[in-house]
Backbone:
């Protein structure tokens, strides 16, 4: 029995695998069918009716849902189909807040693209427009229901991929709205700020809370010493904002652009990542040797931390007490760096550029100010940095490369791969043998923890101890793994959890690619390639080899896990209720 | 002592609302006062159908049908009829002077023309007594199926009968069961759609309230046919009496072992549970209904996969309407040929209609397919009240269309109605006369659809809203050139683009009224005039000077002081102030006020 | 319920109960129950008819009452209507006679001539 069927699309014979949809079959044959609510593997519900085709049924069918079958005759484009699609799109436009010129998604909006593609020259059916309040109380995510097209991609990602369900469709018919339970603001829900909803949204209904103005302000303040650190994933994504292909590394140009924006120093978060490995690796060794709480679970993903605080408060003690690299860096800058450079820490303004929206929430956590000053002053997403670069008129594509500044500009390859799922684990495993025995083992490329499978496992034998590790990305997968651990069905020493599917490279702050690009390209894998490439090209590949980091201990922190480390580089967590018991 | 007389009292929702429980209480009182309470049995039954004349009471053995009975009539009924044997003629329905009172209904068109199959037990048995159901061959069909027939034989019989879904779509029932039967799966489900959402429809309600066991029996038969052991009845929560009667029926059936394990000693087991709806018309749609049972937002999904292959909890599921099920036991007992002998070539059997609107005999009727609309409206329905002219009959509720006078002789069946631009629907039939505005009617149905749209797909969510906005403008006298064409454009695209049946059929009332009454639309848009005199915004109330006596009564009644004049001289209405409430016209004793 | 026989038994039992509601052409016994009839004991006659029919499991015969038939001196009176409309008028009845009428006229199709009005008038 053949695994393929032959169908006809627009008169063209197409061979397609059994179980695939008409949309997939058409794409494989180079036939483009417009979509709006479709987002591969995340939202496939046939709701928007843009992809309708004629399959000979009583009414047109959604190609994204209709299964292929032997001998099926499909017409994707006819006057009636075009008219129906146009009317449907005009209806969507008629209930959409058309402030395109000032919209954050102008020029990268799937609705805008569709309107152009379908040649809409007139909206024939204007009518009542809803006037919803914008929810901008969250530190990370802003929701604007007036621009929402009710495609439910955000709902799908929050409910099915992240299993948080902080938003869902409420109401019925024309009054349908995507909102949080009881219309409470997002900040009062268990929303973990991961921003996956933002990168799933085809239009401007979801965006990050903007810090751009505040950063411009700081940069023009002569009294402040404004420094910036960039996360590893940023360099793998920033290029897309300037039309580079997905997965292009733009590290050098990124640094140059930041210098041109006026930052006094441009640092690399990867350096702090190496520092994190030192602290966390030591923590792991300590727990293993002294029967501490296992598994040790990584704590660099603030989306994951909040998820744990809401849904697995009984596992808070498993979390590493290490701050994330972002915050370790901030603490280092306002203590070690301030002292070394003789700058008043009150005048140091730390900006971090992150692929992450949850980092904005993390920066506001009151306990993350152990130097007496907030570790981080403002967080910019990759997208916001691009906005600033464009606003400053910088011709990004033609910039020369530059290097990061000292004393926090050097990082090992281990630090770079933090941005991909499995990166933290691999970086740690490269150093753990040394931390345990004082000697390196042969493992540098631990490929078994790389890639986008839902759960990855590794086992490293050091001094007769078999250290079992697991890596999971996407909170839905984290949930499954944690449930298994709680039920005693799986045992590990060390677990890496990243809230975003694919890790930080696919974070809520990264450039947004439309569904059409995501149909063929796995952003997670493509962007991660850039990081592994940089790692391969590094001279130093293990965190404990970083001279900058070693100097930090020598000059300031004494030793990993020491008293000063604990004060400045470690933190604690807080159990959080999901929804208030009494809703008034 | 055996009861020598049975008094059947309708306890359908309509009559309950008109005090039939009080009537029963009074009966108990007066029978006891006369010492005959042990000889007379009071029986609660379901809907007789002639709701216009309710509350209905039938007394046997004479077979006297009393109508418009009120609690105050009870004393007389007891004293005259039950004690003295004298029929109370003033309350009698039909030929009051018939020699044999049992034959008094013979010539009452309402009853004479009906063929009650689905409603066979309604108004005859006490729905809360399983024995009475059994007395009328209840559960004999189930017994026959599980002990004498194979599942495939049952399916073949249903296929042969030509039964088509009575919920509206008219899909061949036997074929649906066949699809589910041929799926290989250890778990299958049988569902009953008792969500009956069409405004004004109460066919299913009457079956559930008057004969719940027929649904249970049919579901068990269906379970046997397709290989399922679990059924769900999804009933709208707005039917509390139906829910209660179903619960009682299920308990009684379980007690008798007619539901549960090893029915009739075979290894066929089947049980039924009730699931309540939560007020959404869209949950009458097959996939939305199942999604609702699963505890999720009641929204439809795309098909394929069809529920017979992947339905409730992704298992093969059949969903049939209450009325469809009500026919099943009779088909098995009397045979597919008998069923197929009723009706037309492509639409077999009977159909229950809820007749309402501007018609004399509002109520429930069951007629063979192929009966013409004219017969239903005039012979059975008793014609239009006040001698008004018939204008159109709306079938199929918010998914259907209007049938004008020129098509009154069309035999009613699935295909004929679709050809006319309407559809059978679940059986609602609303009669309109010359005083109804067809644009207003279309707006009414669209309002319903806008409210009930689930919101998942833009054509329905936004499209129906935009259509409604245009209709609102038209009926407010603000119609613009091009509005009618816009309605047509939207209607076509919504029909083709919507995800589910609700959206796909939502434009039907508009399309159908445009087809037959385009002139009314054009009068609204071009002349800002409502020919039927319904759309208030375009009405002008004026006083006919020749008829006005100057009594000033209208001026006094006017709530906004829009009428002025001198006593004994013709008064005048200020149209700028007039809010068109019509109070002046109602109070004028000289018919001197007109609206146009 | 474990067998069809059990179902049938319930049906038989219940049918007796509700057969009174069937409106088909059947034999009807109408007992005069006006004041004269009641005074003459028509109630007992009616009870006797009902009980005898019940005892014999006869379900397609109804017993109902009517008002004054007119021939008051002959009360208690009962009229038996055949399915084809033919009527037999019995007069001066009591419980015993009622039972005989059931046995002979209803069951055996032999009207009890000696109880009829015709016989009395001779």
Residues:
């Amino acid at each position: 029995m053949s695994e393929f069927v032959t169908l006809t699309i627009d008169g063209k014979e197409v061979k397609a695998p059994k179980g695939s949809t008409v949309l997939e079959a058409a794409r494989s044959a180079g036939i483009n069918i417009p979509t709006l609510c479709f987002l591969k593997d995340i939202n496939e519900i046939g709701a928007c009716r843009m992809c309708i085709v004629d399959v000979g049924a009583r009414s047109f069918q959604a190609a994204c849902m209709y299964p292929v079958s032997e001998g099926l005759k499909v017409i994707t484009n006819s006057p009636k189909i075009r008219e129906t699609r146009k009317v449907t799109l005009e209806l969507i436009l008629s209930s959409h807040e058309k402030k395109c010129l000032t919209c954050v998604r102008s020029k990268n909006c799937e609705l805008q693209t569709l309107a152009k593609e379908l040649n809409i020259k007139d909206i024939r059916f204007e009518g009542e427009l809803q006037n919803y309040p914008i929810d901008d109380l969250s530190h990370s995510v802003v929701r604007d229901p007036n621009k929402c097209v009710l495609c439910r991609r955000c709902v799908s990602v929050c409910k099915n991929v992240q299993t948080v369900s902080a938003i869902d469709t409420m109401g019925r018919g024309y009054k349908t709205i995507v909102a949080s339970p009881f219309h409470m603001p997002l900040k009062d829900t268990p929303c973990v700020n991961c921003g996956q909803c933002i990168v799933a949204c085809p239009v401007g209904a979801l965006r990050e809370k903007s810090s751009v103005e505040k950063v411009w302000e700081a940069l023009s303040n002569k009294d402040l010493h404004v420094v910036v650190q960039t996360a590893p994933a940023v360099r793998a994504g920033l290029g897309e904002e300037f039309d580079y292909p997905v997965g292009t590394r733009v590290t050098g140009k990124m640094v140059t652009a930041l210098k041109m924006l006026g930052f006094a120093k441009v640092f690399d978060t990867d350096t702090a990542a190496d520092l994190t490995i030192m602290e966390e690796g030591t923590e792991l060794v300590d727990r293993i040797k002294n029967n501490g709480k296992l598994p040790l679970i990584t704590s660099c993903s603030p989306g994951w931390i909040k998820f744990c605080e809401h849904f697995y408060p009984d596992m808070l003690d498993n979390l590493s007490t290490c701050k994330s690299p972002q915050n370790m860096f901030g603490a280092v800058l306002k203590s070690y760096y301030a002292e070394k450079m003789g700058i008043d820490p009150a005048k140091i303004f730390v900006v971090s550029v992150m692929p992450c929206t949850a980092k904005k929430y993390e920066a506001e956590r009151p306990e993350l100010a152990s130097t007496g000053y907030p570790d981080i002053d403002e967080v910019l997403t990759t997208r916001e940095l691009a906005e600033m670069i464009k606003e400053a008129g910088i011709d990004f594509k033609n910039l020369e490369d530059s290097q990061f500044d000292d004393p926090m500009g050097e990082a090992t390859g281990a630090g770079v791969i933090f941005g991909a799922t499995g990166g933290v684990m691999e970086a740690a495993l490269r150093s753990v043998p040394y931390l345990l025995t004082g000697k390196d083992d042969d493992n540098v490329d631990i490929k078994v923890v790389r890639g986008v499978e839902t759960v990855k496992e590794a086992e490293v034998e050091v001094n007769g101890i078999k250290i079992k590790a697991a890596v999971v990305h996407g909170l839905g997968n984290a949930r499954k793994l944690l449930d298994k651990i709680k039920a005693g069905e799986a045992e590990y020493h060390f677990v890496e959890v990243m809230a975003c599917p694919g890790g930080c490279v696919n974070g809520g702050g990264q450039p947004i690619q439309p569904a059409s690009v995501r149909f063929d390209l796995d952003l997670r894998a493509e962007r991660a390639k850039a990081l592994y490439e940089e790692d391969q090209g590094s001279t130093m590949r293990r965190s404990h080899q970083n001279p900058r980091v070693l100097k930090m201990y020598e000059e300031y922190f004494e030793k990993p896990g020491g008293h000063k480390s604990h004060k400045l580089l470690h933190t604690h967590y807080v159990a959080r209720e999901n929804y208030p018991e009494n809703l008034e | 002592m055996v009861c020598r007389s049975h008094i059947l009292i309708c306890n359908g929702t309509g009559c309950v609302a008109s005090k039939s429980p009080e009537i029963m209480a009074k009966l108990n009182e007066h029978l006891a006062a006369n010492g005959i309470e042990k000889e007379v049995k009071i029986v609660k039954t379901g809907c007789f159908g002639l709701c216009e004349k309710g509350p209905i009471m039938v007394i046997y053995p004479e077979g006297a049908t009393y109508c418009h009975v009120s609690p105050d009539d009870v004393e007389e009924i007891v004293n005259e009829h039950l004690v003295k044997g004298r029929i109370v003629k003033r309350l009698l329905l039909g030929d009051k002077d018939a020699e044999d009172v049992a034959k008094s209904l013979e010539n009452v068109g309402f009853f004479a023309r009906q063929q009650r199959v689905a409603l066979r037990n309604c108004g005859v048995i006490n729905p809360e007594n399983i024995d009475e159901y059994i007395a009328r061959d209840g559960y004999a069909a189930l017994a026959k199926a599980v002990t004498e027939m194979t599942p495939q034989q049952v399916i073949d019989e249903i296929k042969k009968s030509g039964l088509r879904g009575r919920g509206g779509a008219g899909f061949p029932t036997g074929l649906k069961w066949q699809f589910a039967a041929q799926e290989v799966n250890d778990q299958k489900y049988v569902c009953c759609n008792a969500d009956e959402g069409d405004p004004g429809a109460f066919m299913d309600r009457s079956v559930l309230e008057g004969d719940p066991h027929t649904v249970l029996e049919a579901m068990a038969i269906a379970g046997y046919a397709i290989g399922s052991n679990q059924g769900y009845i999804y009933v709208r929560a707005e039917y509390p009496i139906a829910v209660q009667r179903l619960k009682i029926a299920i308990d009684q059936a379980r007690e008798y072992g007619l539901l549960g394990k090893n029915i009739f000693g075979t290894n066929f087991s089947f049980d039924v549970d009730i699931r309540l709806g939560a007020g959404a018309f869209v949950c009458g749609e097959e996939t939305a209904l199942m999604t609702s049972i699963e505890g999720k937002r009641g929204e439809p999904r795309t098909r394929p996969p069809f529920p017979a292959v992947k339905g409730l909890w992704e298992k093969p599921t059949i969903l049939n309407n209450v009325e469809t099920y009500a026919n099943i036991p009779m088909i098995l007992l009397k045979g597919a040929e008998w069923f197929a002998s009723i009706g037309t070539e492509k639409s077999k059997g009977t159909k229950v209609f809820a007749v309402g609107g501007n018609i004399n005999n509002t109520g429930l009727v069951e007629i063979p397919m192929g009966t013409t609309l004219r017969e239903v409206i005039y012979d059975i329905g008793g014609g239009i009240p006040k001698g008004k002219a018939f204008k159109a009959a709306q079938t199929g509720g918010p998914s259907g269309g209007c049938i004008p006078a020129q098509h009154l002789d069309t035999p009613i069946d699935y295909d004929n109605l679709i050809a006319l631009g309407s559809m059978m629907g679940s059986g609602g039939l609303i009669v309109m006369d010359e005083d109804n505005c067809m644009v207003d009617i279309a707006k009414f149905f669209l309002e319903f659809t806008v409210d009930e749209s689930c919101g998942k797909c833009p054509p329905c969510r936004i499209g129906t809203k935009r259509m409604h906005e245009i209709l609102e403008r038209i009926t407010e006298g603000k119609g613009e050139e091009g509005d009618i064409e816009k309605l047509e454009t939207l209607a076509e695209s919504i029909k083709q683009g919507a995800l589910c049946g609700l959206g796909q059929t939502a434009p039907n009332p508009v399309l159908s009224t445009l087809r037959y009454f385009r002139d009314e639309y054009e009068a609204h848009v071009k002349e800002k005039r409502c020919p039927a005199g319904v759309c208030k915004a375009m009405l002008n109330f004026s006083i006919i000077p020749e008829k006005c006596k100057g009594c000033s009564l209208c001026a006094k009644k006017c709530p906004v002081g829009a009428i002025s004049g001198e006593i004994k001289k013709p008064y005048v209405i200020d149209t700028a102030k007039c809010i068109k409430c019509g109070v002046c016209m109602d109070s004028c004793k000289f018919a001197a006020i007109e609206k146009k | 319920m474990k067998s069809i026989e059990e179902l049938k038994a319930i049906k038989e039992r219940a049918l007796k109960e509700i057969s009174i509601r069937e409106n088909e052409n059947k034999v009807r016994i109408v007992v005069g129950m006006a004041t004269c009839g009641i005074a003459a004991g028509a109630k007992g006659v009616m009870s006797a008819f009902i009980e005898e029919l019940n005892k014999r499991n006869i379900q397609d015969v109804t017993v109902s009452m009517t008002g004054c038939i007119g021939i008051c001196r002959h009360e208690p009176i009962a009229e038996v209507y055949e399915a084809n409309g033919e009527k037999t008028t019995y007069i001066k009845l009591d419980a015993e006679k009622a039972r005989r009428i059931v046995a002979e006229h209803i069951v055996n199709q032999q009207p009890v001539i000696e109880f009829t009005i015709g016989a009395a008038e001779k």
Remarks:
- Chain A touches chain B through 38 residues (CB under 8 Å).
- The mean pLDDT of chain A is 95.
- The first strand of chain A starts at residue 4 and ends at 9.
- Chain A has three domains: 4-77, 120-208, 212-569.
